[in-house]
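Our working data are protein records whose layout never changes between entries. An example says more than a description, so a record of this kind follows.
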Amino acid sequence: MRHADFIDMTEDAATGFGLLLESADLATPVPSCPGWSLAELARHLGGVHRWAHAQLLGGGQQVDRQTPDAPLADRDALVGWFREGAADLVATLRELPEDTPCWALYPPARASTWAKRQALETVLHLWDATDSLGIAVPIPSNLAAVGVAEVAEDMYPRQVALGRMQSLEERVELRLRDRLERPGDSRSFGVRVRLGPVDEAPADPSTAASETTPADATLEVTAGDALLVLWKRRDLSAVDARITGSRAVLERVLARPLAP
């Protein structure tokens, strides 16, 4: 996906989220974000937008999170507050060159990383909001595939580096059945994403470790469902999945804190 595509998806998802805030019951519980109401989810997402915006303008230094209080008790004020943060983020992402240096959660430390991260953040939380209202919107498969790779290649290694979990010992292969390895070739297999020991995980899935070390389990699923499972929005039992190898290993790996 292109840098501009991520920005467009952030803007579209934020627009949809803002429309929900205008009419939905803000006290609605959000089951996929335990303990939060729809208003509290808006406070979180609006805060993340402001935090990401600050990093983009931080000159390469990490900027502490300093988010003004969201006006949870006033619907109109909350909608305005949320839209202001999203608009500032999108405008700055469009204005800055994608290779602008800035602190980021994971490499590369540049604006393009925030464009990708905020598209995923905003689209996933739009899913949370719509799911809580019984109208869950599907996550675009191209973005979902990017998000699955982000968990495996960026979030999971970061969790290990921060001491939030130990490196995996088992190896799990995710096969995204709706994203072909060779676009346009219907005979090609679904895109493969691998989770395994951090010091073994290759940047290029065609390298030897990925190809010659057998996976303990393989999960064949759509990209959207894979993303929801990895971010613990859906259980394996709730998605259309084909599992080969050890289901116990797969469940053990998916239970780990692979993403924050």
Residues 167 and 199 are 8 Å apart (CA to CA). The longest strand covers residues 172-180. The chain is about 50% helix and 10% strand. The radius of gyration is 19 Å.
